[in-house]
Amino acid sequence: MLTSNVRHFAAVLLMGMAGLLAGATPALAAAPQHHDQAPGFYRLKVGDLEVTALYDGAGVFDLHWLNAKKATIDGVAKALREDPYLLDVADSGFLVNTGKQLILVDAGAGTWWGGPAFGRLENSLRSAGYTSDQVDLVLITHLHADHVGGLTTQDGQRVFPNAEVFVAKAESDFWLSPENAAKAPKDAQSFFQSAQAIAAPYVKAGKWHTFSGSEAIVDGMTIVPLPGHTPGHMGYEFSSKGQKILFWGDIFHAPRVQLKHPEVTAVFDIDQSAAAATRKRLLPRLAGEDIVIASPHGAFPSFARLHKDGNGYSWAPVVFADQWVDGSRAADGVDARELFMTTQGTRTQLTYTGN
Ligand SMILES: [Zn+2]
């Protein structure tokens, strides 16, 4: 503890030194602000897989795009007045490097949806050390433009020229059908037009492949049908060395609302009751196991684990770390995570065990 005299002496000394320094050096200009951000990628180790979230953009989900009982919507409207950031969402795609193949799961919006705040995915992929011609496979969760827009330029060029693109047959048949497009209500027309224009150069090049549910496309990957949002909405579950990750497309649009109220659907869910039923069936399974969820509209880096919480669920987001470590919990319940803290040159290892 400093006595008040000593403190006074120290203050006078510091002021004197500050005066000396000010006299000796010219005043420094104010540091300019920087408005750029860190490159939009984040890598996660899932067994032997290197999984990279690729940022495409961010926006705000509109309250009117949610569908629920009036009381629930009124509650969300009230919460939104208190927390105007409640419906903020991201848009991400994901890369899986299996060591043999480079696989892209969803491709962001490109220039087909959401305006200039979107379309960063290809840049994010380059920042992550890859080029678009290295992508071998693209797995599509569904054909909405915010998930496939990044595949094709506005003038019809393939952004991933060497990639074989895989999409569920039900999904491809639905959106690429001229008859369905003609029958669709006016507001839905643009979804058909973008899907058809984005698919066209891959179809023409013989690189557009459909599957009906059981085909083996990639070793260690299981197709998980998640119908409702769109007719052929698909999840892709990868596992490696007992660790798992599910790319689940649009199971959630407004995660902070739908975690609490899993029954809330979105107006973009083509079959509202099937979308709700899929979620009702899927969420308890995911909450009961250690599986990472890659959720394109979750806060970047869009990886989280799900837990049961009262009548709803809570999210344990993967927290940014600049380490390449195994983030998963071992099967025996012992947490394999090791957190290294560097304090004044001393490296302290903290090992967490158990719960
Ligand atoms: Zn979406």
Overview of this protein structure:
- The structure is a single chain.
- This protein is an alpha+beta fold and about 350 residues long.
- It folds into two domains: about 40-315, Metallo-beta-lactamase, Chain A; about 325-355, no CATH class.
- Helices cover about 25% and strands about 25% of the residues.
- The protein is built from nine helices and 17 strands.
- The protein has helices spanning about 5-25, 70-80, 120-125, 145-150, 170-175, 180-185, 190-205, 255-260, 270-285, and strands at about 40-45, 50-60, 65, 90-95, 100-105, 135-140, 165-170, 210, 220-225, 235-240, 245, 265, 290-295, 305-310, 310-315, 340-345, 345-350.
- A seven-stranded mixed beta sheet has the order 1-2-4-5-6-7-8.
- Helix 3 links the parallel strand 5 (about 100-105) and strand 6 (about 135-140).
- The longest helix has 21 residues, at about 5-25.
- It is globular, with a radius of gyration of 24 Å.
- The chain starts with a helix and ends with a strand.
- Mean pLDDT is about 90; it is low at about 330-355.
Give a short summary of the structure.
The chain folds into two domains: 41-317, Metallo-beta-lactamase, Chain A (4-Layer Sandwich); 325-355, no CATH class. The chain contains nine helices and 17 strands. It has helices spanning 4-24, 70-82, 121-127, 145-148, 169-175, 178-183, 189-204, 255-258, 272-287; strands at 41-46, 49-60, 66-67, 88-97, 102-105, 137-139, 164-168, 208-211, 221-225, 234-240, 243-247, 265-266, 291-294, 303-309, 312-317, 338-343, 346-351.
